[in-house]
Amino acid sequence: MNNTYQLPQPIAELLASSKNVDAKQPELIRQGGYVPPSMDLMIDAITALAMGKNLLLKGPTGAGKTKFAETLSNMFHQPMYSVNCSVDLDAESLMGFKTLAYHDNKQVIEFVPGPVTNAMNTGTFLYIDEINMAKPETLPLINGVLDYRRTVTNPFTNEIITAKKGFNVIAAINEGYIGTVPLNEALKNRFIIIDVPYIEGEQLRHLIASTTRLKDNHTIELFVQLSADLIAAVGQGKLSEDAASIRALLDACDLSTILPPKRAIQRAIAAKLEEVREREFVQNIADTLF
C-alpha cells in the first residue's frame, strides 16, 4: 500500500530550502517545538515520514524525542495517538478492549478502540514511546502495521484493519536502561533510525530564553555551561544520562527565578539521581558555577 501523501506547503518549502534551513530554528523555538542540533535531523525525519516510512528516534532521556515527535505531527497537521510501553503492555493496550454497555435498555458488548486502531482508522500518526520496554512477545502483533501492508487483524473482533492514507508511526527508544530489551532485527528493520542528541550551545541558550521564566542573560549562560559539563560527565561515564536531561535543566531554570540556582539544581536535577555519588557530583559542578 502506498502511504505517501502531499506535503503541507511549509514542509515542502523546508525541504526545498537547502541553504537557509537554519533560519527555521527560531521559528520552531517561538512555536515551542523541538529544536534539532542540526536541521539535517528535521529534514531527514520529514523526508522519511513523507515517504510513508516509520521513524525510530534514538537518544538519551530528556533529549527531546517526544517533543520531536509532537513537532513532526504538528508540521504535518496530523493528530497523534500515543502508546506508552512497559512490561505490562498487552494487546488491549494497543488495539482496544471489549466492555459492557447499554443500548435501548439492552445490555450489549462494545469494542472500545485503542491507540493503534484509532490511528489506523483515522489516518493519523501513532507514537510508540519506550518501544524497547515492551515484552518481545507483544510487539509482533503489529508487525503488519509497520510494513508495506499497513494492516492488522484485531484479535478481539477478527476485523482486518487497513490504515487510511496519512497513517504513520514514530517510535522512541532509550537504549541500555533497566527493563529494556534489544529490538529484534525484524522489528528494527521496519524503521528509519534518527539519533537524537542533546542540544547545546546557542540553541540551548535560545531554548532557555524562549521557553522558561529565566531571562537574566548571565544566569542563562551559567545554565548552558552547566549542561555542557553534565553532558561531558555523562560521556566520561561519571554520571548517568538522567543527569544531563534537557527537560530537567529547563525545570531548574524555571525554579531558579524564585529559588537560589544551586537549590533549583538540587531539586530539578540532582535529587532525581539514584546514587549519592552522582548527586554530590552534580552539586559540586553547581557550586563551581554558581
What descriptive keywords fit this protein?
290 residues, Rossmann fold, five-stranded parallel β-sheet, 13 helices, 9 strands, elongated, AAA+_ATPase, CbbQ/NirQ/NorQ/GpvN, ATPase_dyneun-rel_AAA, MoxR family ATPase
Structure, explained:
The chain folds into 2 domains: 187 residues, P-loop containing nucleotide triphosphate hydrolases (Rossmann fold, 3-Layer(aba) Sandwich); 89 residues. A hairpin with a 2-residue loop joins strand 3 and strand 4. The chain has 13 helices and 9 strands. It is 42% helix and 17% strand. With 290 residues, it is of the alpha/beta class. The longest helix is centred in the last third of the chain and has 19 residues. The strands form 3 sheets. Strands 2-5-8-1-9 form a 5-stranded parallel sheet, with helices on both faces. A two-stranded antiparallel sheet has the order 3-4. The chain has a two-stranded antiparallel sheet with strand order 6-7.
Work out the strand percent: 15-25%
Query: How many domain modules?
Result: 2
> What helical percentage do the residues reach?
40-55%
Helix and strand content put the structural class at alpha/beta
Q: Which second-level CATH architecture of the largest domain applies?
A: 3-Layer(aba) Sandwich
Number of strands: 9
Radius of gyration: 21 Å
Largest sheet: number of strands, sense, barrel closure: 5 strands, parallel
State the end-to-end CA separation. 57 Å
The stretches of 5 or more residues where confidence is low (pLDDT under 50) are 18-24
Strand order of the largest sheet: 2-5-8-1-9
Q: Average pLDDT value?
A: 85
Order of SSEs, N→C?
Answer: HHHEHEHEEHEHEEEHEHHHHH
| Count of helical regions | 13
Globally, the shape reads elongated
| The first-level CATH class name of the largest domain | Alpha Beta
Domain AAA+ ATPase: 51-238
Pfam families: AAA_5
Protein name: MoxR family ATPase
